[in-house]
Amino acid sequence: MNKIDNAASMLNPQGGMSGAPALRGVRVIDLTQFEAGTSVTLALAWLGADVIKVENPVGGEQGRGASTDKPGMDSYYFMLLNANKRSVTVNLKNERGRKILLDLVRNADVFIENFAPGAIERLGLSYEVLSAINPRLVYAQIKGFASDSPFASYLAFDMIGQATGGIMSITGEAGGRPLKPGPTLGDTGTGLHCTIGILAALYQRESTGRGQRIQVAMQDAMINFCRIAYAAQSLHGKACERNGNQVVLGTTAPSEVYPCKGGGPNDYCYIYSSRASNMHWHRLLEVIGREEFKTDPRFATPQGRADHVKDIDAIVAPWVALHSKEDVMRMLGDAGVPAGAVFDTMELSEDANLREREIFVTVKHHQRGDFVMPGWPVKMSDSHVKIEASPALGEHSAEVYREVLGLGEQDIAELRAEGAI
Amino acid sequence: MNKIDNAASMLNPQGGMSGAPALRGVRVIDLTQFEAGTSVTLALAWLGADVIKVENPVGGEQGRGASTDKPGMDSYYFMLLNANKRSVTVNLKNERGRKILLDLVRNADVFIENFAPGAIERLGLSYEVLSAINPRLVYAQIKGFASDSPFASYLAFDMIGQATGGIMSITGEAGGRPLKPGPTLGDTGTGLHCTIGILAALYQRESTGRGQRIQVAMQDAMINFCRIAYAAQSLHGKACERNGNQVVLGTTAPSEVYPCKGGGPNDYCYIYSSRASNMHWHRLLEVIGREEFKTDPRFATPQGRADHVKDIDAIVAPWVALHSKEDVMRMLGDAGVPAGAVFDTMELSEDANLREREIFVTVKHHQRGDFVMPGWPVKMSDSHVKIEASPALGEHSAEVYREVLGLGEQDIAELRAEGAI
């Protein structure tokens, strides 16, 4: 227990030596909606930036209401993606509202949006306009397709990025139909790329004094996740094919999920033997008591095992079936064989160690009370931010307009009265 | 053509206004292998950092040889992950070799490794040792499991991260077995998180003057990709289930890949209607000439459509089957319906627009000649790096040791003779 406590306090020193997280002092004007863009500003908030989420006074950002189970109550979806942000309302179609937004931008370091193609220009908030009023601004955009792609004007959501970026063509059973991975690679995966661009631009600004424009398209970012499929294409001279749970290169075995005792939908353990040597394979044979196969010529190389994958499965599967997934993982892990139980979302979110390490945190939401959600997985010894629940719509309007723009109570009341905020 | 050229030159001004890419001047000592770590230093190189890849004099990094089709020739896998890096050789088990490494670290900004658990400490290159000799160092590590996880000592590769981080539990057909997505989320997905930590630490160092330690575990990073599954878990009160191509929230339809004319393995188009309104659904009905369903009470809400997904499929599928995937995407995209053809790796890598925009680039490799590979998908108006092929083993040893450590030809010859480099 003490050991874990000490390690955790070393990793997350609640402010570290400096007391300030990495992006303390960085102000982000956040016009994002749904997930691709909101995942970026969530990461920036968790690195210590002051993220000001700008929302429509009527109903707020679309993700608040979409997919909620109770009308008028923020969706879990929204709560997962908007922690540690401040919410202000602005009516961007009102002239004074638009002026408020421009004033915020004058006092900001980063601006980001992921509206449908052309929308931000129609709002009069293009890169050209905003960089002219604040040359230090880092202006970031996420779209489905690049502005100079033939598909530039097309709408896109997560799955459209996954389809057009090659992800679905390499996911699924051999000979089966294309399949969408469950995780939202098109959204959060593109968002991670955009976050990298923004951070690099902030670093570059330290020497140039200037901001710049960052553009990331979902289709393009998806290709970066599929790189190894291009190694497979080069190896085999044809498009990379779906191959179930085998690695796309097809150059080793075992590389499969095997059913374990219990028979539940996720009672499986993935077992892998690296293509770099026979070491893991030999260790596996020792654990399962089948050392006679160490000298079998069929299995003498990684490629040889891949060529005899059914024989491999026939040796490994019967042993795995005798044990729970946790036991299989433990016995193989202890012996130095790469093995991973297929954990489901409930098992993970209730795991004591993941809770202790803030991979899952409990926040207090103004409508729903205690809420368990994934936290930030990047552990930095000198930057830590306590995770706080997503804000109510406009919760920080008065605070932000006073603090950032110097407005008084009277100004704010007037702006509200005329529907500008 | 001119339009595309102009757009491309605006996005990638070959050095931009400043002439220097974002991370010019940042030196990275790169002890990474395979993909999780190499994907980080690849991103840093493409942002302009000077990445010095430190390899074993005998055979180099394991990824060079693993999965190659021709012994002695660098694998495509390695070539995809090590572009724009400089390669030096160091024998870390030789005393003078280890001293060379420490001298490099004294002159570096970032150090990164993804060896098996405990290996870097056994080499005498722990965070404590290196940060003591260079307090400005950002020291980054990627492991399968956190150092304070019960699985801390276990080996992990991409698929182990995907299994234990929940990815496989939400990927696959409804009622089917857990499936590994084709893309290497455990590797490149964790690498993106680590890259964010490194960049944030470099930015923080501008104000603190100090480096810090960054640790990312594959299992933890995978959870961040599955966030929406935790919204589904909260909605339904049970672990998120696999659901084929439907969105995990299960709150709208269509949200499916439909077979197109042609019948090939990837002749499919994904069609989606957002859960935020009925707008896409109505537009879809107009395009396919079935406007009578606009007023059908079964389909009056996103949730209603999700509850009648088979009826939706029966309306949409026959129309899609009449057209090629490109035509389906074009007709629906033009009408404002989210739709994405399932492109395969060959279609993408041969796409003229993706080539023009440097999403795929051709590099000249010292052994294999012209090689097409994915480029960097983040477009920055003021930072651009020309993509160059991965280096030969030790190609830059003399250059780096002269330039960074001030060694002469005689020194280098001696070090080689005694097997230190």
Q: Characteristics of this structure?
A:
19 helices; formyl-coa transferase, domain 3; six-stranded parallel beta sheet; alpha/beta; elongated
Description:
Two copies of one chain form a homodimer. Helix content of chain A is 40%, strand content 14%. In chain A, a hairpin with an 8-residue loop joins strand 7 (255-259) and strand 8. Chain A has 19 helices and twelve strands. Chain A has helices spanning 2-11, 36-46, 62-65, 76-81, 95-106, 119-122, 127-133, 158-164, 185-208, 218-225, 227-236, 279-287, 302-307, 309-320, 325-334, 345-349, 352-356, 397-405, 409-417, and strands at residues 27-31, 50-55, 86-89, 110-113, 138-143, 213-217, 255-259, 268-272, 339-341, 360-365, 369-374, 379-380. In chain A, helix 2 (36-46) crosses helix 9 (185-208), helix 8 packs across helix 10 and helix 9 packs across helix 10 (218-225). Chain A is an alpha/beta fold and 421 residues long. The model of chain A is unreliable at 1-16 (pLDDT under 50). Chain A folds into two domains: 2-225 and 354-417, Rossmann fold (3-Layer(aba) Sandwich), CATH 3.40.50.10540; 255-259 and 268-341, formyl-coa transferase, domain 3 (2-Layer Sandwich). A six-stranded parallel β-sheet of chain A has the order 3-2-1-4-5-6, sandwiched between helices. At the A-B interface, helix 1, helix 4, helix 8, helix 9 and strand 6 of A face helix 1, helix 4, helix 8, helix 9 and strand 6 of B.
List the helices and strands and how they pair.
2 copies of one chain form a homodimer.
Chain A: H1 2-11, E1 27-31, H2 36-46, E2 50-55, H3 62-65, H4 76-81, E3 86-89, H5 95-106, E4 110-113, H6 119-122, H7 127-133, E5 138-143, H8 158-164, H9 185-208, E6 213-217, H10 218-225, H11 227-236, E7 255-259, E8 268-272, H12 279-287, H13 302-307, H14 309-320, H15 325-334, E9 339-341, H16 345-349, H17 352-356, E10 360-365, E11 369-374, E12 379-380, H18 397-405, H19 409-417
Parallel strand pairs in A: 1-2, 1-4, 2-3, 4-5, 5-6
Antiparallel strand pairs in A: 7-8, 8-9, 10-11
Helix pairs in contact in A: 2-9, 8-10, 9-10
